[in-house]
Amino acid sequence: MRQSQVRLHVNIDHVATLRNARGTPYPDPVRAAEECLGAGADGITAHLREDRRHIGDRDVERLRSTLLGSNRTFNLEMAATDEMVRIALRCRPEVCTLVPERREERTTEGGLDAAAGGDSLARRVRALVDAGIKVSLFVAADAKQIDVAHAMGAAQVELHTGEYAHGKAGELPRLAEGARRAHALGIEVAAGHGLTRENVPPLVAIPWIVELNIGHALVADALFLGMREAVRAYRQAIELGISARERSSHG
Q1: 251 found inside a domain
Q2: Residue-wise pLDDT tens for the chain (251 aa)?
Q3: pTM of this prediction?
Q4: Inside any domain, residue 214
Q5: Catalytic annotation on 77?
Q6: Is the CB of residue 187 less than 8 Å from the CB of residue 157?
Q7: Which alpha helices (H) appear in 131-188, and where do they start and end?
Q8: 8-state DSSP, 4
Q9: Which residues 6+ apart lie within 8 Å of 44 measured at CB?
Q10: Catalytic residue among 14, 35, 77, 150
Q11: How many domains, in total, are found in the chain?
């Protein structure tokens, strides 16, 4: 298949961060989501943290209403807790991405240790799957983590790209091997964290990656380009990677 089906999901958390800095009703993350969708984004991602530092419960409700029936995806990032599972079961996003969460961190750092999650994580994954919600686990490109995600019934893994974004040597081949392993197990492969217009094309050149989740850099670029133009710029970066992927496959 032609891999132009690499989906772009925009994380709008940092629009809410800016709003919350002054306690104003603006900028509205739901308006940002509408702008992204209008520019061709395939879905919207929002992380409802336990401390509600950016996205709030009302934002989740409004995003669910906005995306309902739009043929676009609402991806709710959340910790693997009973509270968050209850919220997900109530609002029914298309996708729930389970991520690690620590109150002292600035943003999600590192992948979820699915292998250490045990029965409690498996139970929460099963509750979401049984409700018809697609489950993604945000994990490192590590064989053990990917195998556990598969065993738990996750339909997708989102590979953590933070070390790649920081320029750590050897990360691109490691991500490629993780993507290959997940694909071989029948798991869909997404990627995210720290992605920019500059580092997206080499990542997308990896076969098997079908989705990117991008937030901070895209919202930052939108300050200068506007939200719609920023989305289009990231779509162009994705297309550059797809072109490299196709050249490689034919070479």
Answers
A1: no
A2: 344 579 999 999 999 999 999 999 999 999 999 999 999 999 999 999 999 999 999 999 999 999 998 999 999 999 999 999 999 999 999 999 999 987 665 555 679 999 999 999 999 999 999 999 999 999 999 999 999 999 999 999 999 999 999 999 999 999 999 999 999 999 999 999 999 999 999 999 999 999 999 999 999 999 999 999 999 999 999 999 999 998 887 76
A3: 0.94
A4: yes
A5: yes
A6: yes
A7: 143-152, 162-165, 171-184
A8: G
A9: 9, 10, 11, 12, 33, 36, 37, 63, 67, 72, 73, 74, 75
A10: 77
A11: 1
Which residue is catalytic, options 47, 54, 150, 160?
Answer: 47
**47 belongs to the catalytic site:** yes
CB 153 within 8 A of CB 135: yes
Q: Which residue in 54, 188, 193, 211 is the catalytic one?
A: 193
9 flagged as catalytic: no
Domain containing 120 equals 3-246
Contact 162, 171 (CB under 8 A): no
| The two structure tokens encoding residue 202 | 């080499």
